[in-house]
Amino acid sequence: MSRGGGLRSARTVTLAAALLLLAPRLAMAQEFTAPAPLPAESAARLLEQALPPAAPGARFQSIAIQWFGLAELATASAALGGSWRGGRAALGLSHTGRGELGWSAGELAGGWTDGHSGAALRGVVRLRQDPDGALQPGAEAGAGAWADAGARLRLWATAPQLWQDGEAPPLERRLELGARLTAGDLELWLARRTAPGSAGGLNGEHSAGLAAHAGAVTLWTHLEDAPARGGFGFAVSWRGLGLSFASDLHPVLGETIALGLTAGP
Predict the structure, then answer these.
(1) Which end of the chain is more exposed for a tag (fewer CB within 10 A), N or C?
(2) Cβ of 150: how many Cβ atoms within 10 Å?
């Protein structure tokens, strides 16, 4: 191995270890982190947070994420969602990383909505390969719900990992509470997530964001704490097709970039 290749491998392993150690305090989602404002309705959000979309219709999403500038930890995923009357369901497949740092996942979620409230369940199965080639399975399940508190205010609560078994998930996620206020073409949201390992759930992580819609274009920005960081994104839609981009900058581990392609309402 060349000296440059050895240095890159060492950097990859070091940053990957840092990612795995710090991950519970870095992000709110895992394989299906769609580049979109936090309250956006999508098949990916149904899979990740068990929050069903109010609008009916079939949805397809393809997502590519490069975590903290590391191609070795990139995620590629695809999600398909559908509806029947008030029922909502989604299926997703994803793969993250390479070799010993990689894993594959399959997710299934389903729930119900009447257009003003909704609830769903989600389940995930993951497979990771050990250095000796043995497959290590893991599974988790959770639930979420949302409700409109008036014409402009929506509240949600999600606990995506109520149950776990086998291989530990890449991120530990607890209860998240959020609110979205709509004013014309503007959306403001606030969210609080219980910090992993906090006694009695007293410590929390917080996020706030603002999205602006102008015809086929959506722009958004958000701020997070623990540690302080932020990001921005934009999306363009045309005749049921959408393209989105998001950038999140971490003060230590660097920039995470996500690209998304959607088809559907």
Answers:
(1) N
(2) 8
Q: What are the DSSP E strand ranges found in the chain?
A: 59-66, 75-84, 87-96, 103-113, 117-129, 135-148, 153-166, 176-183, 186-194, 204-214, 217-224, 229-238, 241-250, 254-263
Tell me which of 24-38, 83-97, 123-137, 186-200 is least confident. Answer: 24-38
What φ, ψ does residue 11 adopt, rounded to 5°? -65, -40
- Residue corresponding to tokens 């043995």: 134
205: amino acid identity, one letter: E
What token pair was written down for 128?
A: 């990771």
Count of C-beta atoms within a 10 Å radius of residue 248: 23
Tokens of 223: 């701020």
pTM, to two decimals: 0.87
Q: What is the pLDDT of residues 18-62, one digit of tens each?
A: 454 444 334 445 789 999 999 999 999 999 999 999 999 999 999
Q: Which domains does the chain have, with CATH numbers?
A: 3-263 (2.40.160.40)
